[in-house]
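Running this now, will post back.
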Amino acid sequence: MKNLKLFRLPAMFLLGLGLMLTSATIQDKELDKVEDATGVLRDFGKMKESIPRDMLQKTNGIIIIPKLINAGLVIGGKRGKGIAMAKLADGKWSNPVFVTLTGGSFGLQAGVQSVDLVLVVKSTNTLHRIGTGSFTLGGDISAAAGPVGRSSSANTDYKLEAEVYSYSRSRGLFAGISINGAKLDIDAKANKDFYGQSYTARTLFEGSDKTTQASVKELKTTLTGLY
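Update: finished.
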């Protein structure tokens, strides 16, 4: 009986250790997504043509989808996971909310591309709408290819009437692109895995600091550094 008890102790220890390692592995997956998003912003910042600074100063939200898969032959499809952040009243950025983007596209295209995508969101209300259910870009909310150029004069005459402006980088090329028809959803599982409990998107967007992860702080610093 004593031997059985001694056997149970290491077994329980190994089970607990296994659960801890599994939890760490799950969170590492989301940390990788945060770090990938930071890398996308760094790459955008190094390019001669990028998102105009004044757009980033005025925007109230941003969505970053690293390595979006864009595939197809005449009829294409998009699939990617990333993060969204809202700008707070004090000008700082909220913690990231994990999102997914899926959708079809039509046009002359062939092969498979990996695209880094950034969506500049004019209103925080637009981000809050994601939390109430998925919506379609160009359908439920207006979307357009964003103007390109670092200086504030780059879009002086540009009619900024859409709610979301999109930018992409693929194979070193940078441009505003059309993503009409793509659907945005909150990735509730990823958020729970990352934060350790279920927070609503609104709670995270409203700025309560739910993590002290260094990678999140670096993401915010990198984003602010673009403007």
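Residues 17-23, 106-110, 153-157 have pLDDT under 50 and may be disordered. More later if anyone needs it.
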